[in-house]
Amino acid sequence: MAEIGGALINSKAQQFSAEVISNKRVGAYNHMVFAVNELAHHCRPGNFVAVLVGGASSSMVLRRAFAIYRASLRSDGVGLLELVVAANGNGSKWLAAQLPGSFVDLIAPLGTAFGIPTEPVNALLVGGGYGSAPLFALAEILKGRGCRVDMVLGASVAGKIYAPLEGKRSVNSLTITTEDASAGISGRVSDVLPDLIREHKVDVIYSCGPMAMLEAITKISQSHEILHQCSVEESMACGIGVCMTCVLPVEGDDGITRMTRSCIEGPVMDGNKVLWGHSREIPEGVWGR
Ligand SMILES: Cc1cc2nc3c(=O)[nH]c(=O)nc-3n(C[C@H](O)[C@H](O)[C@H](O)COP(=O)(O)OP(=O)(O)OC[C@H]3O[C@@H](n4cnc5c(N)ncnc54)[C@H](O)[C@@H]3O)c2cc1C
Ligand code: FES
């Protein structure tokens, strides 16, 4: 396993030229499937891919991070890697424009994965926008371990909810929230969490989405004294632990808070240990300041 500054890069990571097998528009997103090799075996919910965008001679030198939506093996042995892409900036627009038959350079799997309990627990999965991407594969694994799995997906508008039919089948209940009331309950995911936590006797929250949402969920998980594993979406320039753009203040097991690289010690972190609201500064009391 490669070690950089004390932290470990995902030992299974490979650079790979992957063929686009399909690319379909689903609501506000592109659902893309890539043919890969045996690396599909090693991808776990929470891991991400660093994609080289713009082609070989592109001026976009920084790779872009995308959560792995699903990884599987086709009957002929070809590995499949699926992503959900929001085409917002130049890099993601380039990726979403790649047609079947084209090749994309990617490094995967990167980062940490969601921890899976050894005993059946009641899990609440919370996704914001494309943050639902890694949660469906996670739901299947948790169900396979005998867990109760409830899910909440939220977005500003209905079109930004990513909830494919097959995903809905892997959860006991699905609650949708939208800020403009165009689907489900009007409001934010954090509005419905306290009732769901009580109703389903939730033991652990798994979340993925914008940082403000993760911070709001942490306040709720702390007040209910339950575990909160979240996948953070800090800007990642290199994705492999070298550049320090992705650091967040996180309290370690020894009680000391350190600036922690979310690309290799995350993206999945203990939400209750993150000092939220300080992603662009080193707060007082952090080790080394
Ligand atoms: C772990 C993780 C998982 C993600 N999963 C998904 C997903 O499933 N689907 C999805 O659509 N998006 C996902 N994203 C967001 C996605 O990576 C960004 O939207 C993407 O980088 C946008 O690229 P762009 O060129 O389209 O946007 P632009 O805004 O044009 O460019 C973003 C570029 O700027 C760089 N950058 C931004 N801020 C800084 C900074 N402070 N310092 C240095 N460089 C910076 C980024 O590294 C990137 O190269 C994820 C992000 C992370 C970190
Ligand atoms: S993105 Fe470069 S160190 Fe994390």
Task: Give keywords.
binds FE2/S2 (inorganic) cluster, alpha/beta, 16% helix, 5 helices, Elongation Factor Tu (Ef-tu), domain 3, Rossmann fold, seven-stranded mixed sheet, binds flavin-adenine dinucleotide, 289 residues, globular, seven-stranded antiparallel sheet, 3 domains
List the helices and strands and how they pair.
Layout: E1 3-4, E2 7-8, E3 14-26, E4 29-36, E5 48-51, E6 64-67, E7 70-73, E8 79-85, H1 90-96, E9 103-110, E10 122-128, H2 135-144, E11 148-155, H3 165-168, E12 173-178, E13 185-186, H4 189-199, E14 204-208, H5 211-223, E15 227-231, E16 247-251, E17 257-261, E18 268-270
Parallel strand pairs: 10-11, 10-14, 11-12, 12-13, 14-15
Antiparallel strand pairs: 1-2, 3-4, 3-9, 4-8, 5-6, 5-9, 7-8, 15-18, 16-17
Helix pairs in contact: 4-5
The protein binds flavin-adenine dinucleotide and FE2/S2 (inorganic) cluster.
Brief summary of the model shown:
The chain is of the alpha/beta class and 289 residues long.
Structure, explained:
The chain has 289 residues and is α/β, with parallel strands linked by helices. It folds into 3 domains: 3-110, Translation factors (Elongation Factor Tu (Ef-tu), domain 3, Beta Barrel); 112-231, 3-Layer(aba) Sandwich (Rossmann fold); 235-289, no CATH class. It has 5 helices and 18 strands. The protein has helices at 90-96, 135-144, 165-168, 189-199, 211-223, and strands at residues 3-4, 7-8, 14-26, 29-36, 48-51, 64-67, 70-73, 79-85, 103-110, 122-128, 148-155, 173-178, 185-186, 204-208, 227-231, 247-251, 257-261, 268-270. The strands form 4 sheets. Strands 6-5-9-3-4-8-7 form a 7-stranded antiparallel beta sheet. Strands 13-12-11-10-14-15-18 form a 7-stranded mixed beta sheet, with helices on both faces. A two-stranded antiparallel sheet has the order 1-2. Helix 4 (189-199) packs parallel to helix 5. The protein is globular, with a radius of gyration of 18 Å. The protein starts with a strand and ends in a 19-residue tail after the last strand. The site of FE2/S2 (inorganic) cluster has 12 residues, from loops. Residues 48, 62, 64-67, 84-86, 88-92, 130, 133, 233, 235-237, 245, 267 line the site of flavin-adenine dinucleotide.
